[in-house]
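Hey, resending since the last one bounced:
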Amino acid sequence: ANNCNTFITEATFALPVFTHPNDKLEAKKIIDSINNNSAQTHLIGVYALGKCQRLICLLRDLGFNKTIYLHGALIKISEYYVSEEIKLGAIKNASELKDFNGGDLILCPPSALHDRWSQKFKDTVKGFVSGWMTIKQRIKQKNINLPIVISDHADWKELTDTIKEVSPEKVLVTHGRDEALLSFLNKKGYKCESLNLLGFEDEDD
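The structure tokens again:
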């Protein structure tokens, strides 16, 4: 690759402990759980922009053709994806789900997993789709039964491999765990420093 002058990277999962697994295998855990717990409703927390639609596409690719119910906050952006010819299959607003016979899949914002809205669904398996589901303390803290590790951020190997490939003169690191990545880059002889940007938050905050 041609050298560039400055490369700017985020560092949300910039620690060697973070190695994101295959996203299809993670999505399959949801299908397996529905098959094994068919009497229960599956309530899965996903971010509205991108993560929700990515998960739906993964489930469809794996052959899951049932209706997927969405919290109202996920509907508008998902309908926009459909209008742009991204096939999401049968999706409906969760408000249309009147009979809770189990086996239904409902996606909602992570903040809705434990709020008043979620209390109308009885006997649920609660899942959360996030890179943070690698961390057992986060799973326990958020009272999650079904942790699904799918992230839209690069893991440690992806970050370090990309920097090697780009071979920049200087690296600016922002948004996350910059100390570990800066230490790694210094040892490898890269010019690097932290870049502080206002308005960024961690993936599930």
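The chain has a mean pLDDT of 91.

Sorry for the duplicate.
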